[in-house]
Specification:
Radius of gyration: 34 Å
Distance between the termini: 22 Å
Largest sheet: 7 strands, parallel
Number of strands: 37
Helix content: 25-40%
Structural class: alpha/beta
Strand order of the largest sheet: 27-28-26-29-30-9-31
Length: 1008
């Protein structure tokens, strides 16, 4: 960090080329300064042996222990021999194994009673933990020169254990550190003396000495406190200088004119701004009105309540999926018929749930904060602006004075479903053969429901030609059925085509009253079709909200949809909505005479934004065009795939200020693109763009334009202060911490085997209480499992292969359980490589309660709903990501009984993966889960790209854990930079800053 020539010395000059090469290749250490900042991971106490019970598998470990026994055994008829050494720490034993010619020196060194430090990877052989060919360092045998040297090296009470590799053991790193430690005396202290003294921090050379060679635990704490402050403070100074530089730039204030474009837009916009939205809008407008560029991060309307029960439905391109089965990355259908990606899933625990009853008797459930895009009958016919209202607002203002519904929902655009797969037989003939008089439960198979618009219409026409009727006026169309299921299926088909259908129960039948758009005639038979009359123009297909009824408490979640409308289609083809507010900021800038550009990561999203914005603005987006109003502007699209003529026209509109708003992709940053007066840059999905791309667009303004950066992901405050520390942050509606309906616990199988035994007892208890359980494994375990590539076996020794235990497999675990702890229970397996019919049969048996325990891969993550399943055991839980664990545990706790999720791991208590599991078990809150996820992925290089593979500039500071230090460092840094922006009076801090900001990071700060 604070490098001076002695610390810049290449390691090969100090340690020799061989050691230096290993350090560079395996640890990324190149200079003396790099090595000095390679801090110990933990410390072993000289007077206390490390507990062997805590050893993890598959990790490079270092232990201090005493030799109990040592013996040479022969094998292969006496031709081979091995040395087996048993070491102990008083609480357990560990076996060391040496083979062949490598046994002679350890046989001589490792006599019973000898104390030493051992390093290697722990593996299991014959059900015993062992280290094969470990490296070792004697600690208490005076006769050994090496041991005497070791004792001298670690004269203190604590032995530093360094992050090491198989090529370079911890004690060899310690010896190298000994050689360079004298250089720490030359380290210049970057912290201002007043700051250091005011906070009681030790000088930097002392901190570096104490972190590497502590005598007491207090030394370690002193060193950690100091080194964390170094990292936090220097980083925050870099960001504070960036913020200060922004304030020195001049920008044109953008104040919207009274009764201008923004006012006209607000008058027709379907936005009922919440308190949070009003607050954020004020922050943005206040920034735009200043003479300095706005530099603001907007965390979008992710979550903010707007939740639906886990058993409600969401329309996907394949068909309907349960809300509880939706995962980030899934595709859903927007009301416009476009396909959108779910960019966030946010569990909300249990909440009060309400049911909207619509005018055709269809229902949809949600929480009180859920948003609905609604209008009065006059609004939809053009007399008034539609609105976005919460469930609470609708139920408090439900009816007109006449008692009729006040609020109506919009109509969806019908879409093809089922991924283009064709039904197994002709859909019209299939529909005509179905009889409404049939009483069987399975009336219309999914193959005929989840298919194209054309096929769904054909099925419906077949049904209607057989059992449909038209009244004498030719307006009322009815389908009759002897049982409920056929009636519901017909209603489903009608709604999927944008029509309305109401199911009425009569004395001996169910009648479905049907209305369809003219483009989808309900009959093919001429004798029925010819009797149909045209519908009156004011007779729309919008459904009114007839009632809002309380359902009770349910587990709910909300999703964020990466579509400009933030809307998706839910139960019974009903539109539900999440709002977008960035457009108002763009309109304010246009109103003030400037132009606004929105940068989207993909052409699809850019096109969706353009379509959505022009639709919302209506005639206000028709500037210079016939029909455009007084305040209108032009909204243009610019993407790489546009035709030459359209592209030339768009470029001309931008250069002449004919277009106030442009939405585009990377094509916006090309040299040919010129603006008349660029006033605002909006960057959507910020993480998808490099800083150079954003800077290229910002540079197109006559003066520095204002910048609004948007992200849909909830960002914990600590991360925002570091990763986005040069941006002011606005958050729209943080998620409330929901109460979990599922109890989750970590089962440390290696540390406490009896906990795993108890887990299987709990599964038996759930089954004995009439419930069922899942057991999830990361791998299938059949012959088709991933095989090593050709040549891989040659590169790996048998020893290397033994070191890495493969993930637990479904087929193996199922067999062990059926013949072991779950003997007597009905155990079945389910995985993705089974034949579809076999999978269906297994799931049917499980859903019917015929199977007690289902051992499965993550194939159950989506699309599985068995309310009677109350327990889940996830094996090797550390092999799954945060979101995947959360999705998996959502399979239980779906009925009236409480859910239980047990996360089984063999990771030791100190391992990061173990900490992650503990944290996942503790919460269902969206912000908290994102915090855990970010914490586990670490911060990367917080000044550069985390994906770049560059080692993090943060070695001691943990962004998530050290919030208090980061917040205080930010305040101190702001104070220092405000008083001395060039840091002229703090040369050591300037040196530290220069060392932190290599060329790439300097660009990040200059261009951010």
């Amino acid at each position: 960090m604070d490098l001076v020539p002695a610390l810049e010395e290449p390691l090969k000059k100090v340690l020799g080329p061989a050691t230096a090469k290993v350090m560079a290749e395996h640890l990324g250490l190149h200079t003396v300064g790099d090595l000095i900042h390679h801090y110990p991971r933990r410390y072993a106490e000289r007077g206390e042996l490390t507990r062997l019970a805590d050893l993890p598998l598959d990790e490079h470990v270092t232990v201090v222990a005493q030799v109990a026994t040592a013996r040479i055994l022969k094998f292969n008829g006496g031709r081979g021999q091995r040395l087996e050494v048993t070491i102990t720490d008083g609480s357990g034993q560990l076996q060391l194994v040496f083979f062949g010619r490598g046994i002679h020196k350890p046989h001589k060194d490792l006599l019973p009673g000898t104390r030493a430090m051992f390093a290697g990877k722990a593996s299991v052989f014959n059900r015993k933990m062992q280290l094969a060919h470990p490296a070792y360092q004697l600690l208490n045998t005076e006769s050994s020169d090496e041991a005497a040297e070791a004792v001298g090296s670690w004269a203190g009470a604590l032995l530093p254990i360094y992050p090491a590799t198989a090529k370079l053991e911890s004690w060899k790193i310690a010896k190298a550190v000994d050689l360079v430690l004298p250089s720490t005396r030359e380290a210049e202290d970057p912290l201002p003396e007043s700051l250091r003294e005011g906070r009681g921090l030790v000088p930097l050379p002392e901190a570096l000495l104490k972190i590497h060679r502590p005598h007491t635990k207090a030394d370690i704490e002193d060193a950690r406190d100091r080194l964390k402050w170094d990292e936090a403070f220097v980083l925050q100074v870099a960001l504070a200088r960036r913020r200060f530089a922004e304030t020195q730039l001049t920008a044109a204030p953008r104040v919207p004119q009274e009764d201008g474009l923004l006012t006209a837009f607000d008058a027709k916009l379907p936005f009922t701004l919440t308190e949070g939205q009003q607050k954020v809008s004020k922050e943005i407008f206040d920034d735009l009105a200043t003479e300095h560029p706005m530099h603001r991060l907007l965390q979008g309307e992710v979550g903010s309540g707007k939740a639906q029960p886990l058993d409600s439905l969401v329309l996907t391109p394949e068909g309907y999926a349960r809300m509880g089965d939706i995962a980030a990355g899934d595709e859903v259908v927007a009301p416009s018929g476009e396909i959108a990606v779910v960019d966030g899933v946010f569990p909300q625990g249990e909440r009060d749930v309400w049911r909207l009853v619509l005018s055709d008797d269809s229902v949809v459930e949600c929480d009180d904060e859920h948003l609905w895009y609604v209008g009065t009958s006059r609004a939809w016919s053009g007399g008034q602006a539609p609105k976005i209202l919460t469930t609470r607002e609708i139920r408090n203002d439900l009816h007109e004075a006449t008692g009729s519904p006040k609020w109506y929902l919009p109509v969806i655009t019908p879409v093809d479903l089922g991924g283009g797969a064709e039904p197994p037989s002709d859909p019209y003939l299939f529909g005509s053969r179905l009889r409404g008089s049939a009483s069987h439960e399975e009336f219309l198979p999914d193959d005929f429901k989840y298919t194209t618009i054309k096929n769904r219409l054909a099925v419906l026409q077949g049904l209607m030609d057989t059992d449909g009727t038209v009244d004498t006026q030719g307006l009322s169309v009815t389908f009759s059925s002897a049982s409920r299921r056929p009636a519901d299926d017909v209603a489903w088909l009608v709604r999927s085509l944008g029509g309305t259908a109401r199911v009425l129960a009569n004395k001996d039948a169910f009648d479905v009253s049907i209305a369809l758009p003219d483009t989808y005639p309900p009959f093919r038979l001429p004798r029925k079709a010819d009797r149909m009359k045209a519908r009156p123009e004011d007779d729309t297909f919008r459904r009114g909200v007839r009632a809002v009824e309380y359902v009770g408490r349910k587990a709910v979640q909300c999703i964020s949809v990466a579509h400009p409308s933030r809307a998706y289609v839910t139960d019974n083809f009903t539109v539900t909505h999440n709002t977008m507010v960035a457009l108002r900021a763009m309109l304010a800038v246009v109103d003030a005479g400037g132009q606004a550009a929105m940068l989207a990561p993909t052409e699809v999203l850019a096109q969706q934004h353009h379509r959505s914005i022009t639709e919302m603005m209506g005639e206000l987006a028709e500037g210079g065009m016939l029909g455009g109003t007084e305040h209108a502007t032009k909204v243009v699209l610019l993407t790489g795939s546009m035709g030459m003529a359209a592209r030339r026209r768009a470029l001309l509109d931008l250069a002449t200020a004919e277009a106030g708003i442009v939405i585009g992709t990377h094509a916006l940053i090309e040299d040919k693109v010129q603006f008349d007066d660029l006033g605002l840059v909006v960057v959507d999905e910020q993480h998808r763009f490099g800083v150079e791309q954003r800077d290229a667009l910002r540079s197109k303004g006559k003066q520095p334009p204002h910048l609004l950066v948007m992200t849909a992901t909830p960002i914990p405050r600590t991360v925002a202060m570091t990763v986005f520390g040069d941006l002011e942050t606005s958050v729209l509606d943080q998620l409330p911490a929901g109460r979990s309906p599922i109890a989750s616990h970590v089962v440390p199988a290696a540390d406490k085997p009896h906990f795993l035994a108890r887990a299987w007892e709990r599964v038996r208890e759930e089954v004995s209480n009439g419930h069922q359980a899942y057991v999830v494994c990361p791998r299938i375990g059949d012959d088709e499992d991933e095989k090593p590539k050709k040549g891989a076996a040659k590169k790996q020794s048998a020893e290397d292969e033994a070191e890495k235990r493969p993930p637990l497999a479904v087929l193996d675990v199922a067999q062990e359980l059926a013949h072991g702890p779950l003997q007597g229970l009905k155990v079945e397996v389910l995985h993705g490589r089974m034949q579809p019919d076999d999978k269906d049969a297994v799931m049917r048996r499980f859903a019917a309660g015929e199977t007690d325990v289902l051992v499965a891969t993550t194939v159950i993550e989506v699309g599985v709903n068995v309310p009677n399943a109350t327990a889940m055991v996830i094996m090797d839980a550390d092999r799954f990501g945060v979101s995947q664990l959360h999705q998996l545990r959502g399979r239980v706790g779906r009925g009236s009984a409480a859910g239980l999720c047990l996360l089984v791991t063999e990771m030791p208590e100190a391992a990061p993966a173990r900490a992650r599991l503990g944290a996942v078990a503790s919460t269902l809150d969206g912000f908290e889960l994102s915090r855990i996820d970010l914490e586990q992925r670490r911060e990367g290089d917080v000044l550069g790209q985390a994906q770049s593979g560059v080692r993090s500039s943060l070695r001691m500071l943990a962004v998530i854990e050290d919030e208090e230090i980061i917040a205080e460092a930010r305040e101190e840094a702001t104070r220092v930079v405000t008083a001395d922006p060039e840091l002229a009076g703090l040369p050591a801090l300037r040196i530290a800053l220069d060392a932190l900001l290599d060329e790439e990071r300097e660009q990040y700060l200059d261009k951010g």
